[in-house]
């Protein structure tokens, strides 16, 4: 049996859709030392049957309360999987968009922090101004502003809710930094910074 000397590192990239999380995750996989597995939301959505979409990627707004019990289970499954990979010595990078904009409070983030208790996990906030997010949506073929010239409500809600409570080990802004530059800052934080504490602080609910 393979001997595991220490658990693999875990990097959670949290931000809105089109904030650049996936690009940073790809750089981490290609440039960081060791094996880095990508276990983000997109991977879980790809595994989800069509009739249950968007599943774990359910956007804020409380539009599908019928899916919310399943979302709770899917988040637990994703984080339990992350924990298993780490305990087997594999590093994990996760791109996700945590929010509590459901029809009722599901307390998903706090519950997920408990699953990774005792493991080396860095919580990274990936920020990007909403104007840049809108530009990226248009470039990738997604709808832009409404007929009235307004930002669609779900996109505004993402921007408002995804960084609550805003407790991170590190934050990066993809409107001024490239994915490579963001990844370098993350690697520097892992190598030279103090031990990560964000998930422990969220678990203790220090934001209340």
Main sheet attributes: strand count, strand direction, barrel closure: 5 strands, parallel
What is the topology, as strand order, of the major beta sheet?
2-3-1-4-5
Through-space gap between termini? 44 Å
Q: What structural category characterises the helix and strand content?
A: alpha/beta
Shape: globular
Extended strand count: 5
- Relative helix content: 40-55%
The CATH superfamily is P-loop containing nucleotide triphosphate hydrolases
Tell me the number of helical segments per DSSP (H or I, 4 or more residues long): 8
How large a portion of the residues is in β-strands, by DSSP E?
5-15%
Protein name: Chloramphenicol 3-O phosphotransferase
Pfam family, one: CPT
Active site: 42
GO molecular function: ATP binding; transferase activity
SSE diagram, text form:
Blueprint: E1 10-14, H1 21-31, E2 36-38, H2 41-47, H3 68-87, E3 91-96, H4 108-115, E4 121-127, H5 130-139, H6 153-161, E5 170-173, H7 179-192, H8 198-203
Parallel strand pairs: 1-3, 1-4, 2-3, 4-5
Describe the structure.
Keywords: Transferase. The active site is at 42. The chain is an alpha/beta fold. The protein has a single domain, classed as Rossmann fold. Helix content is 41%, strand content 12%. The chain has 8 helices and 5 strands. Strands 2-3-1-4-5 form a 5-stranded parallel beta sheet, sandwiched between helices. Helix 3 (68-87) packs parallel to helix 4 (108-115). The protein is globular and about 60 Å long.
């Amino acid at each position: 049996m393979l001997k595991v000397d220490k658990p693999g590192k875990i990097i959670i990239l949290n931000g809105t859709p089109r904030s650049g999380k996936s690009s940073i995750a790809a750089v981490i996989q290609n440039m960081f030392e060791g094996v880095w597995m990508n276990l983000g939301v997109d991977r879980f959505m790809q595994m989800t049957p069509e009739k249950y979409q968007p599943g774990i990627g359910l956007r804020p707004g409380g539009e599908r309360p019928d899916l919310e019990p399943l979302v709770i289970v899917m988040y637990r499954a994703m984080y339990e999987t992350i924990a298993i990979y780490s305990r087997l010595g594999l590093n994990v990078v996760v791109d996700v968009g945590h929010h509590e904009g459901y029809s009722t409070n599901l307390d998903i983030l706090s519950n997920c922090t408990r699953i990774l208790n005792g493991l080396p996990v860095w919580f990274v906030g990936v920020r990007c101004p909403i104007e840049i997010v809108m530009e990226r949506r248009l470039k990738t073929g997604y709808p832009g502003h409404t007929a009235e010239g307004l930002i669609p409500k779900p996109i505004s809600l993402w921007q408002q809710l995804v960084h609550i409570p805003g407790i991170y080990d590190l934050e990066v802004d993809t409107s001024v930094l490239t994915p490579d530059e963001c990844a370098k800052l993350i690697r520097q934080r892992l190598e030279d910074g103090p031990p990560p504490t964000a998930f422990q602080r969220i678990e203790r609910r220090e934001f209340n």
